[in-house]
Design goal:
Radius of gyration of chain B: 18 Å
Helix content of chain A: 25-40%
Strand order of the largest sheet of chain B: 1-2-3-4-5-6-7-8
Oligomer: heterodimer
CATH superfamily of the largest domain in chain A: Response regulator
Shape of chain B: globular
CATH topology of chain B: TIM Barrel
Number of domains of chain B: 1
CATH architecture of the largest domain in chain A: 3-Layer(aba) Sandwich
Number of domains of chain A: 2
Number of helices of chain B: 12
Strand order of the largest sheet of chain A: 3-2-4-5
Shape of chain A: elongated
Number of helices of chain A: 7
CATH class of chain B: Alpha Beta
Order of helices and strands of chain B: HEHEHEHEHEHEHEHHHEHH
Order of helices and strands of chain A: EHEHHEEHEEEHHH
CATH topology of the largest domain in chain A: Rossmann fold
Distance between the termini of chain B: 16 Å
CATH architecture of chain B: Alpha-Beta Barrel
Structural class of chain B: alpha/beta
Strand content of chain B: 5-15%
Structural class of chain A: alpha/beta
Largest sheet of chain B: 8 strands, parallel, barrel
Amino acid sequence: MIVAEQKTLEEIRRMITPYARVLILGCGTCMTVCDAGGEREVSFLHNALRVAQAKSGNGTHTFSEYTLKRQCDPEFLDVLSDQITDVDTVLSLGCGIGVQAIAERYPDLPVLPGVNTSFMGMAKELGVWDERCAACGDCRLEETAGICPITRCTKGILNGPCAGTKDGKCEANKDMDCAWVLIYKRLERLEQLEKMRRYYPMRNFRAIPRPKRLTSRISVDMGEDNEDNG
Amino acid sequence: MKTMANSLFEEKLHSNEFLVTTEIGPPKGADVSEMVHHIDLLKDKVDAINVTDHQSSVMRFPSLGGCLLVKERGGEPILQVTCRDRNRLALQADLLLAYSRGIDNVLCLTGDSIDVGDHKEAKPVFDADSVQLLKMIKTMESGKDMGGEDLKGAPKFCIGASVHPEADFIEPQLIKFEKKVAAGAQFFQTQGIFDLANLHRFMQYASQFDVRILAGIIVLASARMARYMNDNVPGIIVCEAVIEELADVEKGKGLEKGIEISARMIRTIKEENLCHGVHIMAVGNEGIVPEILEQAKLPSMSTKGKRINV
């Protein structure tokens, strides 16, 4: 899932300064799971902004709140039309995709990002997420025993560890495992070390050029692989 | 004896001489006078001089510029190239420039992480890694660029790489070493060696490959520096014995002891024929390299035989 971190109250207060009526808009999917912008965080932020305004005596904003099932999908945005009639800005707690989906739908309405979208990752323990995928568009996890060197090696290198690894950790961050030590150990366990001995050429950054667009190969009408007809 | 050497240094790689290379860290700034002084001091005392490429990810005068100066002053440069700051277009362009100016030895490195340096907010590139860089050079030598287009004038280099015989988890390092050999590396300058038993063990394995190994010798100036490097410099593991030896000397005599340790190690490597030569890294104290060579009782270039013009 997509993992994000809410911006500081200070930064959010600075962003909303020009706008009187602010809709705080949550998202019911990834942002809810990563505690950055679900219904609960929308409510907490709403209160925090009100309290900060009252305490500082600074600002005359009015706030409203709403949480969409999903901000990144146009069909889920329809219900918004009732919410945004009386607002001057939307403070979106969706990921970067959610913010842009709102901006595309409402050309005349300023949209502000309330979170910093960080990475795609998985939960490690309660309240802790680790990055696992860089969406490079050219998955090689078969070659690396299911451990991604693009994401988990700070240099994203493909032919084995650099010399900076020590105690199984990364030279850039001693709390972070060296991806290539993990890959070596798992390949060894799977008796597939020959995969590490192979030469891997430089990556193809056109695998999916930026900005990326993906067209489904499954035909909605036919419900099957439509590639041959395409 | 090979006759088709691409460089003077390559010719020496194929001789049975005990090779000595050293390295110069370029200045942080445009004043190259100290670097030129060090080049003049060292150029006739060693077989080749590396110029480092933003070592430890600290922004400095470029390696290529330093190598041009080595060339200008009559020395034999080894261009250190890391993949941290340049994508494949820039890497190839720099290599073409280097070759066109007579810089024909290249040490191919992945490069330290941006995070250990002094521009921590910069974008890390790593479009290639060290193995891919070696392959890139081989492709260019075949007359093609990495886009598959013909080059008007193909370069020819003597190429090297690094290896870490003291890594605490050696097996994955050795796999990478073999990939570098397969990719065409002719010589290796190892990461700093402090325990010669590790070098010995590594050479028992590495001698099966037709490559020349130059043991990395880092000159330490104090026990504090050793500990700092252990904690902060990627690829360095100073053993306790060396740290203790440095800790035992009186204040202000650390560098002297460091020189003594380095010279002793070089002497042992040469006498016991442990590997094909040494690469001395004086990290900021380039001026003391001649003293190390003297204490190590290595013949200077002048007594080793005249330089051969190619």
